[in-house]
Amino acid sequence: MSEQQQSPRSNWPLYEVFVRGKRGLNHVHVGSLHAPDERMALTNARDLYTRRNEGVSIWVVRADAITASSPDEKDPFFEPSGDKVYRHPTFYAIPDDVPHI
Q1: Which of 34, 55, 57, 95 is the most buried (most CB within 10 A)?
Q2: What is the pLDDT of residues 14-38, one digit of tens each?
Q3: Residue 89 pLDDT greater than 80, yes or no
Q4: Rounded to whole angstroms, how far apart are CA atoms 17 and 89?
Q5: Residue 28 and residue 98: Cα distance in Å, rounded?
Q6: CA–CA distance from 98 to each of 7, 18, 54, 94 (Å)?
Q7: How far out from the chain centre does Cα 70 lie?
């Protein structure tokens, strides 16, 4: 028996998939998939999420390796940066020829 037949898909880890559409743009979360390992997750993500040549880079990350803030904690978690207006680009003139801002 092959290794894939010995390990049912329900036991495969969940991977989150991020695709960068064009050079210079950010990776964007496009979905999730189950796979037996990172290599197969990357191959399956390519086949599933970039079928029409819409990607130039793919990241796959095991879902259990991601730590995220909770939407319930939004106000107390982000509040400390709210009074630091100097961190926001409102005081700067951004030239029209600067892309993706």
Answers
A1: 55
A2: 999 999 988 778 999 999 999 999 9
A3: no
A4: 30
A5: 21
A6: 50, 24, 23, 7
A7: 17
Task: State the greatest distance between any 2 C-alpha atoms of the chain, in Å, as a whole number.
Answer: 64
Q: Say if CB 32 and CB 63 are below 8 A apart.
A: yes
Question: Residue-wise over 21-51: b if at least 16 C-beta within 10 A, else e?
Answer: eeeeeeeeebeebebeeeebbbebbeeebbe
State the CB neighbour count (10 A cutoff) for residue 8.
8
The string of DSSP letters for 19-61 reads EE-STTSPEEEEEEEE-SSHHHHHHHHHHHH-TTS--SEEEEE
Provide the edge-to-edge strand list for the sheet that holds 27-34: 27-34, 14-20, 57-62
Look up the pTM and report it: 0.66
Annotated domain spans of the chain: 3-72
**CA separation, residue 6 to residues 1, 13, 64 (Å):** 7, 15, 22
CATH code at 3-72: 3.10.20.520
